[in-house]
Automatic annotation (TrEMBL):
<dbReference type="Pfam" id="PF01042">
    <property type="entry name" value="Ribonuc_L-PSP"/>
</dbReference>
<protein>
    <submittedName>
        <fullName>RidA family protein</fullName>
    </submittedName>
</protein>
<dbReference type="InterPro" id="IPR006175">
    <property type="entry name" value="YjgF/YER057c/UK114"/>
</dbReference>
<dbReference type="InterPro" id="IPR035959">
    <property type="entry name" value="RutC-like_sf"/>
</dbReference>
Amino acid sequence: MTELTTLVNPEGLPANPAFAHGVLVPSGATVYVGGQNGIDSTGALMTGLAEQTAQAMRNVLAVLDAAGTSPENVARLTIHLLEGSDVRAAFAATGPVWGAHPTAITVLMVAGFARPGVLVEIDAIAAVPAGRIPAE
């Protein structure tokens, strides 16, 4: 799939292979992925931060695929973690699922989620290639 996004990493800001400081997206169709958490297709909540994070990322990937796009076209990820969660453990769990697709990322610590036991929620914004928009 063709990448639609261009990473913006200005000189003078620290470089990091895990994220971009900005992402340029040409005008066109976008998909806004609602908050995904560590719940599988049966509705079961995974246990532990790493498992929930990996499942949340798989859920994001499923929505992207259904919308006709892929991680290369994600302009922004927002990751909400339960207060006190280990950010490094959550980040480590994303790698095997997400791969090397840096984008603009914001990580927030929150006091809680609507469903008890949820430790992480991830939402995304992605560009959708022309001609790949699913039929309504």
